[in-house]
Specification:
With 579 residues, this protein is α+β, with helices and mostly antiparallel strands. The protein has 3 domains: 195 residues, Heat Shock Protein 90 (2-Layer Sandwich), CATH 3.30.565; 111 residues, 2-Layer Sandwich (Ribosomal Protein S5, domain 2), CATH 3.30.230.10; 229 residues, MutL, C-terminal domain, dimerisation subdomain (formyl-coa transferase, domain 3). It has an 8-stranded mixed sheet with strand order 5-4-3-6-2-1-7-8, covered by helices on one side. The protein has a 5-stranded mixed sheet with strand order 9-10-15-12-13, with helices on both faces. β20 and β21 form a beta hairpin. The longest helix is centred in the first third of the chain and has 18 residues. It is elongated, with a radius of gyration of 30 Å. It binds adenosine-5'-diphosphate (ADP) and magnesium ion (MG). Magnesium ion binds next to α2.
């Protein structure tokens, strides 16, 4: 026997397609608020949204005689004809969200249009109108939703614990708020404000309100256009990564999406400078909607790009242009962080040691070694040099770490001696590697390197690289190698630390098949070699400044951290409220 489904059963089934869990309700309500022109939206939840969700906005509101209609299936104030479908620029238009939410919850809506003197309060339980009354209320619309899935026990069971549902909501609302920097959002969970954004249209401010940590305060703004693909966003320097993809948030034509293609673009942009983890990348990509297909994922979280390679390249170039060829240098971030600030780890005690190389005897060695692989790699110079090095005057030295210099244009530059030394050391090694004639120094007692059997039996390409850097290393049998000469510009300790880290890195990286890998190996192995004493004498500070000035890129350490931070006189004056 074929029967028509009871209306309430049909409603619940349809609701299941739209409303999967509390965050789906919030998604629909937020999209409606945006469509209603809201400038301020509050999301308030309790128990992961399972027992209570309130979404208030200051949008256009709904007139008293249309409130019930909004809850009918296929009721939408956004399109009336097929032609409208093509010109749609609102977020929702199928007119089923409110009907679906109302089918599976107990719900109240309070709404008032600016032009009306009173508002309306409508109460619906499981699609049935319980009451409707006029009421005083602010302009805009507030939805209060209680007892999600109270009448569909099977669905209710599928909700996760409160923390898990609240986590999904926080993630969603955060991303949603990032996307709409010109709308002020406040998220409240169990009576505690999770975050509040200003709605001032500034993406950096919005990011800082949502993620009030130092990592997010120093992101690099990127802006790039290529083949009609616009890439705008904020990325971390390669030295700063997260252990999860949490900091990688993508919007394509205004929609939050997940995308392996965009992830590939990011990888390309960082040119494998990222050793582990995921750099923060908040990207807003706009491209011709006809070149994407948004319908491949039921929740529309994934899209298909027709021109994948162009998208990857555009993102890659957007990132690499900004992080490797920085126009200027990092500006001092005036602290405007909330109490939630994560205290940045201070660096290890440090010292520039290569500058006082232990002279053990110098020998010129002619390298006739075949190049290991490919073409050669090069260090990219910055676009421009923001100051004349010779005009920098050292005016102070603090925390045994930062050299303070001033230029002749009312700017102060802080130099991080550790980062600067890393840069110097890295460029020396790369120069050694690239140079035909390099100088090695024999050492009195050879350095003995014990390795694992598997490493010993590994391909020996890595020896060629050390050789090109200026080491003389040979096989000694029994899983052992012997170093008899080290690069002239390295101290014994540095040389030993470097080689150990290098071998460790080779051990982890499977194949040395191109220059990017070689560059990566050198970069990686610079880290430990430069740790040592911390305090620099005045003359050592001067040597450091004079050495960094001759680097190809003096402004970043090879891991991407800034070596110089700028603070202008006018920044200081602003902070003292003189301006
Ligand atoms: P859709 O968004 O697809 O049109 P919904 O079921 O989500 O369908 O909403 C139905 C209608 O209710 C909307 O078209 C809009 O006219 C009205 N509406 C919903 N939420 C709001 C709101 N926050 N402010 C003003 N009007 C709203
Ligand atoms: Mg909608």
């Amino acid at each position: 026997m074929i029967k028509l489904l009871d209306k309430s059963v049909a409603d619940k089934i349809a609701a299941g397609e739209v409303i999967e869990r509390p965050v789906s309700i919030i998604k629909e309500l937020l999209e409606n608020s945006v469509d209603a022109g809201a400038k301020m939206i509050i999301v308030d939840i309790k128990n992961g949204g399972k027992t209570y969700i309130r979404v208030s906005d200051d949008g256009i509101g709904i007139s008293n005689d249309e409130v019930e209609t909004a809850f009918l299936r296929h009721a939408t104030g956004k399109i009336t004809s097929l032609e409208d479908l093509n010109a749609i620029n609102t977020l929702g238009f199928r007119g089923e969200a409110l009907a679906s939410i109302a089918a599976v919850t107990r719900l109240k809506v309070l709404t008032k249009r600016r032009e009306d003197s009173v508002g309306t309060k409508l109460t619906i339980h499981g699609s049935k109108v319980v009451s409707k009354e006029t009421t005083g209320c602010p302009d805009g619309t507030t939805f209060i939703i209680e007892d999600v899935f109270y009448n569909t026990p099977a669905r209710k069971k599928f909700m996760k614990n409160d923390g898990n549902e609240a986590g999904k909501i926080t993630e969603f609302v955060s991303k949603f708020a990032l996307n709409y920097a010109d709308i002020s959002f406040k998220l409240i969970n169990n009576n505690t404000v999770v975050f509040a954004t200003t709605g001032d249209g500034n993406h950096q401010n919005t990011i800082m309100s949502i993620f009030p940590t130092r990592d997010y305060a120093n992101l690099i703004e990127i802006k790039h256009e290529e083949n009609g693909i616009f890439v705008y966003g904020f990325v971390s320097n390669p030295g700063l990564t997260k252990s999860t993809k949490q900091g990688q948030i993508f919007f394509v034509n205004g929609r939050i999406i997940d995308s392996k293609i965009i992830e590939k673009g990011i990888k390309l942009g960082y040119k494998e400078r990222v050793f582990s983890g995921f750099p923060i990348s908040i990207l807003f990509i706009s491209l011709n909607p006809e070149t994407i297909d948004v319908n491949i994922h039921p929740n529309k979280r994934e899209i298909r790009f027709n021109r994948e390679k162009e998208v990857i390249d555009a993102i890659g170039n957007a990132i690499s242009n900004s992080i490797f060829k920085t126009e200027g240098i990092s500006e001092f971030q005036m602290p405007k962080l909330s109490e939630k600030v994560e205290i940045e780890q201070t660096y290890e005690p440090e010292y520039i040691k290569t500058l006082k190389t232990e002279q053990i005897g110098i020998k010129k060695v002619l390298q006739e070694k075949k190049p290991v692989i490919n073409d050669e790699f090069s260090i990219e110079p910055p676009y421009n040099r923001p100051f004349v090095f010779d005009e920098l005057r050292i005016v102070g030295y603090v925390f045994n770490t930062y050299i303070i210099t001033e230029d002749q244009n009312d700017n102060i530059y802080y130099i991080d001696q550790h980062a600067a030394h890393e840069r110097i050391f890295y460029e020396k090694l790369v120069n050694n590697y690239l140079s035909e004639n390099k100088i090695s120094q024999p050492i009195l007692i050879p350095i003995v390197i014990n390795t694992s059997k598997s490493f010993y039996n590994k391909n020996r390409d890595w020896m060629g690289i050390l050789d090109k850097i200026g080491y003389n290393i040979s096989e000694f049998g029994e899983n052992t190698f012997l170093i008899r000469e080290i690069p002239e510009n390295m101290s014994l300790t540095e040389a030993e630390l470097f080689v150990n880290d290098f071998i460790e890195a080779v051990n982890q990286d499977e194949v040395i098949d191109n220059n990017i890998v070689i560059d990566k190996l050198i970069t990686k192995s610079c880290k430990n070699a430069i740790k040592g004493n911390n305090k620099l004498s005045e003359s050592e500070q001067l040597v450091l400044l004079n050495t960094i000035k001759n680097c190809i890129n003096p402004y970043n350490c090879p891991h991407g951290r800034p070596t110089f931070l700028k603070l202008s006189k006018s920044d200081i004056e602003k902070s003292f409220h003189r301006k």
